[in-house]
Amino acid sequence: MKPSMSFAKRLALSLIGTTAILFLAAISAVGIVSYTFAYKSAIKETSALFENSLLEIEKMLTYVESSTDGNAWLSEQFSDNEAAMLDVVGNLIKSDTNIVSCAIGFDAYGVWENTMFYCPTAILEPDGNILVEVKGSEDYDYLTMDWFQIPKLLGKPYWSDPSYDNDRLIASYSRPLYRHDGSFLGVIKADIDLDWLTDMIQSVRPYDNSYTILAGRNGSYISHIDSRKIMSETVFTESLEAGDTKAVKAIQHMMSGQKGILKARRKGFKGFIVYGPLSNGWTGALVCTLKDVFSRAKRMSTISFLIAVMGLLLLYLNDRKIIERQAQPITELAYSALNISQGKFKARIPEVKSEDELRHLHDSLRYLESSIDQYITELRTTTASNERYESELNVASTIQMQMLPNNFPKFGDIDLYATLHPAKEVGGDLYDFFLEGRELYFAVGDVSGKGVPAALYMAITRSSFRFIAKMGFSPESIVSRLNDAFCDGNDSGMFVTLFAGSINIDTLEMKFCNAGHNPILIVNPDGSTRYFHAKPNLAAGLFKEFPYQGESLQLEKGTRLLIYTDGVSEAENQSKELYGEDRLEQFAQNSNPQDSSEEFINGLTASIKAFTLNNPQNDDITIMSIKL
Amino acid sequence: MNRNTTILLFAVLAAFATASAQDKMTLMPTWMPQAQFAGYYVALEKGFYADEGIDLTIEHMGVNSSKPGIERIGSGEVDVIISHPIQALMAREYGTKVKNVLQITQNTGMMIVSHQKLDGPQSLNGQTIGRWKSGFSEICELYCLANNLDVKWIPFLNGINLFISGAIDATVVMSYNEYYLLLEAIGDIPEENTIKFSGSGYDIPEDGVYVTEDYLKKYPDRVDRFCRATVKGWQYCIDHREESLDIVMQYVNRVGVRTNRFHQSLMLNEMINMLRTPLTGATDYSPIPRDKYDILVSMLLQTNYISEPVSYKDFVR
Fold it and tell me: With respect to CATH, is domain A408-627 assigned 3.40.50.1820?
């Protein structure tokens, strides 16, 4: 069998299990609260940070717009003065450090009838010089360019979506110009370098993995942490490629010029996006991962968890030690109980000083120990006494058996043999025989009861029979005298059934008296059998002076007489069946008439044994065979 | 001169002879590098032109030249151009007699996309519609003329910003390029806001290979070899799309075109669709059908895009 866990370990584990559940519940509750708090704070903080960044951009855009708008009236006023126009564009660049180039594109034939292209331009060169020139030709057809056409068609200023100009990412603010009569004159535009803008916006990183994106009206990335995506991909590209229509819808909402927060959960990304529009139609978004947002809360949860685990471990070790110490007397008491069970009744029982269940257990064990000790002492005395009694009984049995004649001489031609098998050490059955003159006296009796009283009575009966018979009395006189003698002072009410008789060994006449005994079985010389029911007299010892009647029977040579006690006919097998007189008669009929009395009795004894098998013998069995 | 030196000399001469046997040709597609021209890139990179004895150079509009191929082929600056039938017919007006030697796409990619729902041609009446300054949108213009629509055409250089900004009501797009640019810009395009010319009476095949009549007369075999290698290149694209896309992206990245692989993959797939002949669905590079050609010429004459008829025989090899 697998050794089970110790009581202390089991109890400690059980306590720790409960505590661990409580700890876990507490940590989870704290975790949920801190995660919720972290999330809400992150949304609040990043929103504020993001809006500040947008405001910074707005500030710059507004500055560029003001500078450009401020020069518009000059362009409208002095459009036909080329030098003045070149001054305007040159001064516009100087007025705003964000502006890297600017131009005034006049409508086709808008200033002079014969001039289709007229576009005074200023460009800030890398060395800091400002190059001013009049541009516009078939090769530089600004009339079909977005910065010219869109404000012209819309009739209002326009911020272009960014584009690359000589590897420089620029965006243009362009404003339509009108004549006094309100007709369209041209467009003034200022280009700004977006490199500083993308640098600035990328520096807005509240978390390690967060990043900011800026997208134009056409969805193209103006700024992205992955520079390869800038102007190559749009905010929709990835979702369209993945076929994620839900994401497309969400991004459409994001690009619709509204502020908001988008919770995003897709392959490889879990987080939120704070987004909002710029006044020029662009959209900014700050992307934050939940991993970053929850990193502090996660660290705290991990530390709390580790502390809880350490605490539980210490608690377990401590609990186990305490429980072991508390349970130590139980272990010792268990050892004591084991010792007691092994017969060490003087084993030391550990002292328990506390007044609790342990003390109760201790007292019970002590009481058990003393009770067992006392019982064992008594048992020893009783056993010794029993042994002595048994020994005496054995002696008595030997004496009793020796009282019965065990020598079976031939009386003339008469062959007599008898056996007595007591059910206990000593029995109440008896048989006797002796030859007095030419008369062979014999008796078979059964004293009521069993054991020692019956044995004593049997001894008296046998010696009285022998004494009286030797005085020459007839069997009925012998029984009458025995009866009278037994009735005197028979306070115990014992009696004896007795078949007493005498056979003249010459004439083979049998005289007999049956005092309440079984019928005898007569086996004729031809092997036929019959029960001889003698006159019914009472058993001896019941009524004094009872008139016992004797009988006589002339027997034939070769006849066998079988006198027995009820131990034979009432021998019982395990099925509670009796051996019975029929089975006895059957045995006699089947036996060989030539068999000696000893052979006959041995055969009968074997037959009874075969019948009863192992069923214990419950009455003395006495058989006497007299073969004439 | 010993024997070994002689063998070496012959070997060098043989190698030189082989190299010089390659006929130099210059091809000019209609636009910057993109999957619209995947077949030519693939044929060049996989050595199909070299196998045909052609040493091809590809010059792109906007990269190697600001002038379109149709303007350069007349002066012999380039040998082969990719163009549309209308462009090629109109070029004859200026004396550039080019001939269609191989028709690549079998239908038009021309579409009109509007901010509003388009319910028949009349929906476009009174609208401002963007079109490329460089041409290619003549089909749309013919469509509007035929339907007596009062349309204001706004020419623009490229892209979709004019449309996105709301400055125009509708714009002309190519199904394989601007349509997808627009899709990537706004997320989805309702089909009801579009008019597709493919499958309509205006379904005039577009990209084809053109050489001048003189060049064809002078180098008929070279042109044949060029066409064979080109067909092989397109067939390779059909069979190996990812590898072809890799090659396209190499061309795109080499000159820093601002695009992405997803966009180019959409373009390549649409181009491959357009290779199929509408009636049979087969990819057989059939020349422009006679009936469609006749309708086109008649429309161009009516609208004064061309002043003289051009016979089918003169136009198609």
Answer: no
